[in-house]
Amino acid sequence: MRLRFLAFLLLASGFGLSSASQEDSPRIGDPYFHSSGAWGQDFRDQWAFDAIGLSDPYVVWDALGESPSPVIVAVIDTGIDWNHLDLSWGSLWTNDNEIIGNGIDDDGNGYVDDRIGWDFLAGTNQPWDYDGHGTFTSGLIAAEVNNGIGMTGLNPYARIMVLKAVNNFGRTRTAYVTDAIRYAVDNGARVINLSLGGPSALELETAALDYAAQNDVLVVVAAGNEGQDLADYAFVNHPAVITVAAIGRNGERSTYSNWGPQVSIAAPGEDILSLRARATDTLMNITDAYKPGSAIVGPDKRYYRATGTSFAAPFVTGGASLLWSRNPSLTANQVRQALLQSAKDIGASGVDQFTGHGALDIGAAFAADPNASIVAEISSVHVVQSTDGPAAEIIGTATSDRLEIYRVEIGQGETPSSWKPVAQGRSSVTNAALATVSASEFAGASVWTIRLIVNRTGGTSQVTLYRLSLG
Fold this sequence. Notes:
Blueprint: E1 2-5, E2 19-20, H1 31-34, E3 35-36, H2 48-51, H3 58-62, E4 71-77, E5 117-119, H4 133-142, E6 158-164, E7 171-173, H5 174-186, E8 191-194, E9 196-197, H6 202-214, E10 218-222, E11 242-247, E12 265-268, E13 272-275, E14 296-297, E15 303-306, H7 313-326, H8 332-341, H9 362-367, E16 374-386, E17 389-400, E18 403-412, E19 420-425, E20 429-438, E21 447-456, E22 461-469
Parallel strand pairs: 4-6, 4-8, 5-6, 8-10, 10-11, 11-12
Antiparallel strand pairs: 1-7, 1-9, 2-3, 13-15, 14-15, 16-17, 17-20, 18-19, 18-21, 21-22
């Protein structure tokens, strides 16, 4: 099955001089963190830091403690420009059990001289980036901090495991990606970033994602840029992954961002600035409408701007790595819950199919209780035959570590003015029937909204909405 990476045509154009912002951290020494107008725009060059609750990253970095833990982050992509001035060798994972250059598989992992990762397409230990997408993605997570040039990465303690599974034209096959997932798990990654997508090859994907989940490795997946339902999309249909939609500077879902109950959270994905790999112009492979060179930023041409869910996902991946830098004993599920349950609700009230739990807020995730858990999800609705005739069976999950009650309600239209209770329960339900509602309850309208409310003892709750079209 052929997959592709998820960059997108830029939404703004032009270039210009930078000007300083006075509202961000004075302790950051990287110019693009403070400046605006690097490509002629009237907003900050690294505006996304404000959007994810890191206007001053040192608030979080100081909270990491005296000895933050390095965290291995696997980036499965087009490789990396290992010689970029704003990406230090210290930010790359190194396989200390491998003696580079001796032609021997010293650690017995099946890969010879795999010092910083692997190229799964060529079968070599040189995962170099000749497209640019992987370097861009890695830079968002781990660009060098306070080196006095360029941009700021999210986590100074992230260590990028470079796994090249996408070719120089942004294409790949499911088998390359699943092999890379297994490599990441076997070699110590805590979190895997997948900024790629396409048609699903469910059996292969499920086996690899199960393997990651069983070994306590978190997988973060970009939602994709087609503005369509995610039902048959690659790598998103697994309960343990985090699927990331894109939002713009207005805090609203980007119209190109795919949607569905698989969406977990949203993060900035429009006009994102990051690293440019040498001699690359990534967007030339995306569309003929792109003017060559127009996305290249800076007089040294070492930076790039782009739009897409590909670049929303690394913010979530970076946020996960920060939580592990503070507390390496957290489980993948605890990190997942901290990120999702601290997200800022945007769009429709509660968890929805467009932005999931809401917008990523890393600052709030640091304050969240990693042991608290509330899950309210509606995955599908099926027509079944009940004793009273046709009915809608609502499938989903209603759980909590301290479940008080869950309620299922329905309302007419996309924004109901009133709600009718149809079911409730006090026992957890996981990917099973939450309610069976007689078809007669849906008379009078062609569009209905189903609302699931899960209450946790102590007053916290989670709400999710599901749009149902009849016809």
